[in-house]
Design a protein that fits this description.
The chain is an alpha/beta fold. It folds into two domains: 131 residues, Alpha-Beta Complex (Aspartate Aminotransferase, domain 1); 256 residues, Aspartate Aminotransferase, domain 2, CATH 3.40.640. 37% of the residues lie in helices and 14% in strands. The chain has 13 helices and 15 strands. The chain has a seven-stranded mixed β-sheet with strand order 2-8-7-6-5-3-4, sandwiched between helices. The chain has a four-stranded antiparallel β-sheet with strand order 11-12-15-14. Helix 3 packs antiparallel against helix 10 and helix 5 runs parallel beside helix 6. Bound molecules: D-malate (MLT). D-malate binds next to loops.
Length: 410
């Protein structure tokens, strides 16, 4: 009989957001007449902006015409998009990133999971805790995580707690990890690192020969000037970091699927013989074998986000969600609930009332307010006693949710 990858059997029964969705579906089945306000998974509610929709229509028409038809495209992404990204997301901010360091994909989730393909199984991993579950689960699948302990921690992973005790700022690792996952603005806590704080991580990585996998999916939500939009704003990061970006939360591409990964040409790892190997080369090799590129139509839509109209429309989307974020943040704080995030991020991270666990709060909020969020412990052991709400619902639903939470008996 053939064998399966045993590592998958080590995983918890379901992925965090699938578990939340399962519980919500069950609740809905039992209470079909009740309307839930969904603030759980970070899915957007605003439609895709007009500039991208027009580009989608034009690109669909291209596919109907022999002269403009596009079949297989470059696995790395079309230059019409990678050049725009390099110019507008990086060079305009004074960051030197070239088009051939950008790899367009179907999203940051896939890339942040797939990147492990080009790393050694023996690499030691560090994550901030709580953390976006994809980083942990994909390392479990690869066999890098070790065993799951009774405390909810994997033996092969170094956890860097981020709680109210340290203002949600992780301490530098002590276990000498080879690979460090950082996500800033942070999912799930919505907190940030300043440029000075991020520099300490880059310096650490350069000194210890570690790789930083930097997830910048929420950079468009940054409002404060001392918060870096890209790790490549920090000197030396080109030699120690890979960055993931997404169009999901800015332009509403959660369903269309498009993102990109920046792998600088100055970034080298070593093979088992100690020889230096370019990660840009390896990732290119991986993508050309396993991926045929994001679809032409979707890439045309992404390109349209870089036009003046597209940029304006994306900025309006972000402002819409940030208005929700500040409503949520202020509403919770007025109630005396400790909450962070929401200033440079669409996520609000709140402390559950004394003695109530994350999942108990999930049930309480769902049953008493018909509001769905995500239990903090689902993002890691240090998330116990916390809860995440997203600002991605409509303005009206957000106002209603704040009102309902206000009436909650704690
Ligand atoms: C989240 O809710 O954390 C995100 O929607 C997950 C994702 O982007 O995959």
């Amino acid at each position: 009989m053939f064998k399966i990858n045993d590592n998958f059997c080590k995983l918890p029964a379901s992925y965090l957001f699938s578990e939340v969705a399962r519980r919500l579906a069950k609740f809905k089945e039992e209470h079909p007449d009740k309307e839930i306000i969904r603030m759980g998974i970070g899915d957007v509610t605003r439609p895709i902006c007009p500039a991208a929709i027009e580009a989608l229509h034009r690109a669909a028409d291209d596919q109907a015409c022999a002269e403009r038809f596009h079949g297989y495209g470059p696995e790395q992404g079309y230059p019409f998009l990678t050049e725009r990204i390099a110019d507008i997301d990086f060079r305009a901010r004074g960051i030197e990133i070239s088009a051939d360091e950008i790899f367009v994909s179907d999203g940051a989730k896939s890339d942040s999971g797939n990147i492990g393909d080009i790393l050694s199984i023996s690499d030691k991993i560090a994550v901030t805790d709580p953390v976006y579950p994809v980083y942990i689960d994909t390392n479990v699948m690869a066999g890098r995580a070790g065993e799951l302990g009774a405390d909810g921690r994997w033996s092969g992973i170094e956890y860097l707690p981020c709680t109210a005790d340290n203002n949600f700022i992780p301490a530098l690792p002590s276990g000498n990890p080879d690979v460090i996952y950082l996500c800033y603005p942070n999912n799930p806590t919505g907190t940030t690192l300043t440029r000075t704080q991020l520099k300490q991580w880059v310096d650490y990585a350069l000194e210890h020969g570690s790789l930083i996998l930097f997830d910048a999916a929420y950079e468009a939500y940054i409002t404060e000037t001392d918060v870096p939009h890209s790790i490549f704003e920090i000197e030396g990061a080109r030699r120690c970091a890979i960055e993931f970006r997404s169009f999901s939360k800015t332009a509403g591409f959660t369903g269309l699927r498009c993102g990109y990964t920046v792998v600088p040409k100055d970034l080298y790892g070593v093979d088992s013989k100690g020889e230096r190997v370019s990660l840009n080369h390896l990732w290119n090799r991986r993508q050309t074998t396993k991926f045929n590129g994001a679809s032409y139509v979707i890439q045309r839509a992404a390109e349209a986000l870089y036009t003046p109209e597209g940029r304006q429309q994306v900025a309006e989307n972000v402002a819409y969600y940030m208005r929700n974020a500040s409503l949520l943040l202020n509403g919770l704080r007025q109630q005396g609930i400790m909450a962070v995030g929401g200033v440079n991020s669409p996520y609000i991270w709140l402390k559950t009332p004394e003695g109530i666990t994350s999942w108990q709060f999930f049930d309480k909020l769902l049953n008493e307010c018909l509001v769905a969020g995500t239990p903090g412990v689902g993002f890691g052991p240090s998330g116990e006693g916390y809860f995440r709400l997203t600002a991605f619902n409509t303005h009206e639903a957000t106002i209603e949710a704040v009102k309902r939470i206000h009436d909650l008996k704690m």
